[in-house]
Amino acid sequence: MSSGSYRQVEVRCPFYKYDDGKKRITCEGLVDDSSLALIYRKREDYEAQLGIFCCEHYEKCEIYAVLAQKYED
Questions:
Q1: Pseudo-torsion of CA 53, 45, 26, 9, nearest 10°?
Q2: HSE-up of 30 (CA within 13 Å, CB side)?
Q3: Three-state SS for 8?
Q4: Which helix (H) or strand (E) holds 39?
Q5: Under 8 Å CB-to-CB from 51, ≥6 apart: which residues?
Q6: Looking at the DSSP assignment, which residues form a beta bridge with residue 27?
Q7: Which of 3, 11, 23, 27 has the fewest beta carbons under 10 Å from its own?
Q8: What is the pTM of this model?
Q9: Measuring CA to CA, which residue among 9, 19, 14, 4 is closest to residue 49?
Q10: Closest-CA residue to 26 (of 18, 60, 64)
Q11: Contact 54/40 with Cβ under 8 angstroms?
């Protein structure tokens, strides 16, 4: 696992696994023992995703919505 960013302590999303502190966020996957990686071309986009969705409003994240359905069924 990557050492990640200093913002890991602020993450509230239950599906977040880790990030690399630069351009990659890794979340729980759709099936058991899998992960979903979000890789951004621009660091600004990575930081926006991490700040807005992982740390603040995870319930509004599209990835959160898909993964939450996994537990509803």
A1: -60
A2: 3
A3: helix
A4: strand 35-39
A5: 7
A6: 16, 36
A7: 3
A8: 0.88
A9: 19
A10: 18
A11: no
Confidence of residue 1 (pLDDT cuts 50, 70, 90): very low
**Residue 5 · residue 19 · CB < 8 Å:** yes
For residues 15 and 25, what is the distance between their CA atoms, to the nearest angstrom?
11
DSSP tag of 73: -
* Nearest alpha-carbon partner for 36 in 55, 18, 21, 53: 18
Q: At residue 41, what is the residue type?
A: R
Q: What is the DSSP letter of 32?
A: T
- Tokens representing 14 are 């239950």
Query: Looking at the predicted structure, is the pLDDT value of residue 13 above 90?
Result: yes
Per-residue pLDDT at 9 exceeds 60: yes
Residues 6+ apart with CB under 8 A from 72: none
